[in-house]
Design brief:
The chain is an all-alpha fold. Among the domains are: 174 residues, Alpha Horseshoe (Leucine-rich Repeat Variant); 236 residues, Leucine-rich Repeat Variant (Alpha Horseshoe); 113 residues, no CATH class; 104 residues, no CATH class; 144 residues, no CATH class. It is 62% helix and 0% strand. It is built from 59 helices and two strands. Helix 1 runs parallel beside helix 4, helix 4 crosses helix 5 and helix 44 runs antiparallel to helix 45.
């Protein structure tokens, strides 16, 4: 073994073996390059700790020779740079060159790197890589900071390196460059301004994929000095520009701060306090920019730490929600989106701020808050937003400004659309957070027509949209089953009022479709203005059609202009597409195709009218259900609980219940939809075990067969089933089977058999079977009168003696104090009585055009009037729970019979008794009576005189009844042609005054006259205008030129009402600055209620006499002053009337409780299913919510103006009315005596 010496651990310094000359004449480029390559190889292998630097002197001098540094060959310069870098490494920490030489060397280094380092495929890439690595690891680059012109050189270094970043070099190269720049920043005593600008520019350069300082090793890891230098420099820039109000520069500076925050937030330590100060400055623009920047910084991925580090800044930023400038508050709200998503820990503070902004004085801020939530993704809305917050946002759908309503509704629709897949999968979190949205949206539709228009759009576009093409079938075929199931599943979370609104929006009622079809036909006839015959008539028809359609929209004038513009286009293809969309037989595929093509073509032809026509198509077409829905609806009914009580909780049962609602609604209002599904319906009624399915399909078959007798099934099996059902005890099955039976080819024979069988078995039938038989007879009496008359004497005798006159035993399940009984709680005996009244009514309807009409109707009409006058009973000791049902049925029957001219005059003699049904003590009676009255008035089947009855609802303690009346009058006044409006409302004013004069609570006293004035005011609120004020005033004066047809006492009442109306009209004319001119035309007063005065002396005496008390004018003046007070003050002072359940009993017992909190249909859902769909309301208004479920925001402001004396009138007056009505009608002399005594 060789012995080891003590010097073995300290080897002799290595000397350079390279001794060739690098500079000299005749040295070729190749030779020089080889020598430099050899030198580089040897230098690279030498260790800095073990090198004899004296051996490097020769090459050290030659390498910086200008002939080498300025050589034309790139290879020579690349190897030279590597050798110089190696020398600096070996000589470190002392540089072997002078300052000037070092300047040239470093300029040479960075020139080589900027021009040669382009990518792995570029020449001499390894040499450039070696050079960069050496500068990075050895840190020899810090020598630059000691050079005289260091600032200029540093600027070049930074610019060159930032320029190289765009080449997308290897990650390691970028790290080397970052290390070099960091070393320079750390070493320099003060960072040159141009270098700082160069660094900042990288964060603002949109072409830079990512600033160099954010890649790998960043300035975050540099010394505190470097960070402070950059931070203070940037802060100075911001301060200087802010002071100079150079907002463009300040905006640029703020953009830079945002970029710095994303890449190197530690550099902003000194900038954040400056931003905080900017939140307090006077300039709105500076506060707005600071609010935006801080909002984005808080919303960044490091926002949680940022809030913890700068809590004061966070709190001051939150206060910007109350900034005096709208622009700042808007900026704050817009910045809250990211904060809401990324700062769940601050949820309470965030929600508080956003809740406050939902009620901001400026509508743009409120709209921005709503829009913010519409931009959230599903996960954020689910996990980072509370349900209360969402309800508050969607509640802005009732905002008075359209922009806020639209954004709130759009938010509701979009969030529900995002959440529906999870709701459909019954995800508990999604159901709790979002499933209530459709109900909330739909319930807002009853507020105003403007809100309803927005609800329509949101429901159609987001909640129940037309389906996109299915990926599982042909490209153009939509998934009809999924489309229908979405409707049924959405209804799972709707309450009854919301369901009624949805039914109204569906277009199934078809109340507006004829108006829209008429418009299209008028457009075709108008032919773009090129008309061959009857030009004036064609133009007038178009104008009328346009006006009727426009009246259905919130902005009639704009809509009318758009409709005329559409007519001027005169494109036949558009007309054809519209007709396809409106066709009740259209399937889903055709509807989607036609709608899309129509809107696409219209956008190309005239884009400004697209919004109006999109609404037109939406309202005129069947977008929620159509004939494509029927197979799925039948299947869902089939899969539900066969009992069909609707109270099951399973998914299948709820879907079946909702499917049943739709099929019943279609049967009643648009049976044409069933036209192509008669075979399926006939097959379904064979399922005897599923009672609900049989009922629904029987009703559908009966409806479609009544619509077109040719569609009635004629096979033997179906006929046998129908005959079996018609004689069974299931009332619904029997009723619809009887109706279907009347449509068969041999209907007379079959109906005769049924009548004979029922007549023979009535005496022996049990109560349930009797009720079913009477239901059948009610149908046959109307639809097959000849068959009914074969046994009419037997049947009518039985119904009168053993059904109607039969005293019912109180039911153990029914509260004796309750005045109303629901359908489900009705006993078979009571049901039979109600149906017996229908038999009487339908028999009169069937014979209305015959010579025996009056003979048949007189006892029936007398019976109906008796029921009204005796509070719904034939005997004084009848149970209370039966009175309401019979009273209501009698009133509705009289309304139906009044539609026939043969009975109108006879019923008119008892008009007052019928009219005050709208003031019945029972809410369900008032509401149902109003619904039926409005339906008949809208279809114009009932005489115009009945249009005054809705105005009696002004004192109703529940908003529902008054709202229903008001909605009808407003819509009718807006949509009716002028001549019809004149007949139904304006000239009917004299009838309204006459009705008030005959009102059972009328008295010329200080207590009663204000209440009578309320009636007149309600009428004037809805009808009076500048155009008709002269007519109405003329009619009120004319009332004192005639006498009442009944008695002088009522004449004096009429004169007092006349004077009262004149005073009220004058007051309104003064308030509105309207001129009250004499009416130029002539008006014929109704001869059935008024008579001429006997002579001129009597007329003069009446005109000179004042029938109102002396103090009337004083309280009228006080009332006028109160009406002119600011609405805001009035709202705070109004006194809300307590909810009325029923009037007090005269014996002092407690008030009767209402049966149910929910509004239910008082009669069968198909109470008048025999009526045509045209009987439905033009407004397409849904049933109102029950009083206990209505929110205050849904009622107009006027509804809360009820005084305590109104409560006294509506409660006590009706009690007095019931006691006196018979005397009033039959014994007018007593009434007059009482009136005279009161005057005395």
């Amino acid at each position: 073994m060789v012995a080891q010496t003590r010097t073995a651990a300290h080897p002799t310094p290595r000397k350079l073996k390279f001794h060739d000359k690098l500079v000299g004449k005749g040295l070729s480029t190749d030779t020089l390059q080889k020598k430099l390559k050899a030198l580089h190889a040897e230098l690279a292998e030498m260790d800095q700790e073990n090198v004899d630097v004296s051996s490097l002197s020769a090459v050290r001098k030659e390498l910086i020779n200008t002939s080498i540094l300025l050589h034309k060959d790139r290879g020579v310069k690349a190897y030279t740079a590597c050798c110089l870098a190696d020398l600096l490494r070996l000589y470190a920490p002392d540089a072997p060159y002078t300052h000037n030489e070092l300047r040239d060397i470093f300029q040479f280094f960075f020139r080589q790197l900027s021009t040669g380092l382009k990518g792995p495929d570029s020449p001499y890439y390894n040499e450039y890589f070696h050079l960069l690595e050496s500068l990075s690891t050895v840190k020899s680059v810090v020598l630059v900071c000691d050079l005289p012109n260091a600032d200029e050189l540093m600027v070049d270094v930074f610019r060159d390196f930032f320029g190289m970043v765009r080449r997308d070099l290897a990650k390691k190269i970028e790290l080397f460059m970052a290390d070099i720049l960091i070393a320079l920043i750390d070493e320099c005593q003060s960072l040159p301004g141009d270098v700082l600008e160069s660094i900042m520019a990288q964060f603002m350069d949109k072409n830079t994929v990512r600033p160099l300082s954010s890649r790998g090793s960043t300035p975050n890891g540099s010394s505190a000095y470097g960070s402070a230098c950059i931070s203070s420099g940037r802060a100075n820039i911001i301060v200087s520009h802010s002071r100079d109000e150079e907002f463009d520069e300040v905006q640029t500076a703020h953009e830079l701060i945002k970029q710095l925050n994303r890449s190197c937030p530690s550099l902003l330590h000194n900038v954040v306090p400056q931003l905080e100060e900017e939140l307090r400055v006077e300039e709105n623009q500076i506060r707005m920019m600071a609010t935006q920047v801080l909002g984005e910084m808080f919303a960044d991925k490091g926002g949680t730490d940022f809030v913890k580090k700068y809590p004061t800044t966070w709190n001051i930023w939150l206060l910007r929600r109350n900034d005096k400038a709208v622009s700042v508050r808007l900026t704050f709200v817009e910045a809250m989106k990211g904060v809401l998503i990324n700062l769940p820990e601050q949820r309470e503070a965030i929600e508080g701020a956003l809740d406050a902004k939902l009620y901001d004085p400026d509508e743009k801020v409120r709209a921005a808050v709503c829009k913010l939530f519409s931009q959230l993704d599903y996960e954020t809305a689910l996990h980072h937003v509370s349900e209360d917050q969402l309800r508050s946002v969607i509640g802005r759908g009732l905002d008075k400004k359209h922009i806020v309503r639209a954004e709130a509704m759009a938010t509701a629709g979009r969030l529900y659309s995002l959440a529906y897949p999870e709701i459909e999968n019954n995800d508990p979190a999604a159901v709790k957070q979002f499933a209530w949205i459709p109900e909330a949206v739909l319930r807002m539709a009853v507020a105003t027509s403007e809100v309803k228009a927005v609800v329509e759009e949101v429901v159609a576009e987001h909640i129940l949209p037309l389906p996109p093409p299915s990926s599982t079938t042909k490209v153009s075929d939509p998934d009809e089953g999924a489309w229908t199931d979405r409707l049924l599943h959405t209804m799972k979370y709707l309450d009854e009022p919301a369901t009624n609104v949805l039914l109204g929006l569906s277009g199934v009622k078809g109340t507006v479709r004829p108006i829209y079809e008429k418009f299209v036909q008028c457009c075709i006839e108008n032919n773009g203005g090129v008309i061959d015959e009857d030009e004036e008539a064609v133009v007038e028809n178009l104008n009328v059609a346009v006006k009727r359609v426009a009246s259905q929209f919130p902005e009639p004038q704009k809509v009318a202009e758009d409709l005329h513009a559409f007519a001027d286009l005169n494109e036949g293809r558009l007309y054809k597409l519209l007709k396809t969309c409106m066709d009740t037989q259209v399937d889903l595929k055709s509807l989607i195709k036609s709608t899309n093509e129509f809107l696409r073509r219209l956008e190309q032809a005239s884009s400004p009218i697209v919004p109006t026509m999109a609404t037109f198509v939406r309202r005129a077409s069947l977008r929620f259900v159509n004939q494509s829905s029927i197979p799925t609806l039948i299947k869902r009914v089939q899969k539900g609980d066969s009992s069909g009580d609707g109270y099951g909780s399973s998914q299948a049962e709820m879907s079946a219940h909702n499917a049943q609602i739709w099929m019943n609604f279609i049967s009643k209002h648009c049976p044409a939809i069933y036209q192509s599904h008669v075979g399926e319906l006939a097959k379904a009624i064979a399922d005897d075990k599923n009672a609900r399915l049989v009922e629904v399909c029987l009703q559908a078959l009966a409806a479609v067969a009544s619509w077109d007798n040719k569609l009635a099934p004629n096979d033997r099996r179906t006929a046998d089933r129908v005959m079996r059902f018609v004689l069974q005890s299931n009332i619904r099955h029997a009723k619809f089977s009887a109706r279907l039976l009347t449509c068969f080819k041999n209907a007379e024979e079959l109906c005769g058999q049924v009548v004979d069988t029922i007549a023979e078995g009535l005496q022996e039938a049990d109560p349930e079977l009797v009720a079913a038989h009477v239901a059948v007879l009610a149908q046959l009496a109307l639809k097959s009168p000849d068959a009914f008359e074969q046994k009419s004497d037997v049947i009518m005798a039985f119904l009168l003696k053993q059904v109607l006159m039969q005293k019912l035993d109180p039911s153990d399940d029914i509260d004796m104090d309750q005045e109303w009984v629901e359908d489900s709680a009705m006993s078979p005996e009571l049901r039979a009585q109600v149906l017996a009244l229908k038999v009487c009514r339908n028999r009169c309807r069937a014979h209305a055009s015959t010579e025996t009409a009056l003979d048949i109707s007189r006892p029936v009409l007398k019976m109906f009037v008796t029921l009204l006058q005796h509070n719904g009973s034939f005997t004084a000791d009848a149970p209370d729970e039966t009175k309401g049902r019979l009273r209501l049925q009698a009133a509705i029957s009289l309304l139906h019979l009044a539609c026939y001219s043969a009975y109108a005059d006879e019923i008119g003699t008892n008009f007052v008794s019928l009219a005050i049904t709208v003031q019945d003590p029972c809410y369900q009676i008032r509401m149902t009576f109003m619904d039926k009255l409005v339906t008949l008035l809208t279809s114009r089947k009932i005489p115009p005189q009945y249009s005054v009855i809705p105005f009696l609802s002004v004192h109703d303690p529940e908003a529902d009844v008054k709202n229903r009346a008001k909605a009808y009058v407003v819509t009718a006044m807006r949509g009716m042609p002028k001549a019809i409006r004149l007949n139904y409302f304006e000239t009917a004013f004299i009838r309204f005054l006459h009705l008030l004069a005959h009102h059972p609570d009328f008295a010329v006293t200080e207590d009663n006259l204000p209440d009578i004035a309320k009636y007149i005011d309600f009428y004037l609120d809805l009808v009076l205008s500048m155009e008709n004020i002269s007519l109405l005033f003329h009619l009120s004066m004319k009332a004192k030129t005639v006498r009442d047809a009944v008695s002088h006492a009522y004449s004096e009442n009429l004169y007092a009402v006349s004077e009262l109306a004149q005073h009220l009209i004058r007051a309104r004319a003064k308030v509105h600055s309207w001129s009250l001119e004499s009416y130029p035309g002539k008006v014929r007063l109704p001869a059935d209620i008024l008579r001429p005065l006997p002579n001129a002396e009597a007329a003069n005496e009446i005109l000179k006499t004042v029938y109102l008390p002396e103090n009337t004018l004083s309280w009228l003046s006080d009332q006028r002053k109160a009406a002119q007070e600011p609405k805001e003050k009035a709202r705070t002072e109004r006194k809300t009337t307590g909810k009325r359940k029923a009037v007090p009993k005269t014996n002092g017992s407690s008030k009767r409780p209402r049966t149910s909190a929910k509004r239910r249909k008082v009669e069968d859902t198909d109470e008048d299913e025999e009526s045509s769909p045209s009987e439905s309301s033009d407004e397409d208004e849904p049933k109102s919510a029950p009083p206990s479920e209505r929110s205050g925001s849904e009622a107009p402001a006027e509804q809360s103006e009820t005084e305590e004396k109104e409560e006294k009138l509506s409660r006590g007056a009706r009690t007095r009315a019931k006691a006196r009505i018979k005397q009033q009608i039959k014994k007018p002399v007593k009434r007059r005596t009482k009136h005279q005594s009161s005057d005395d």
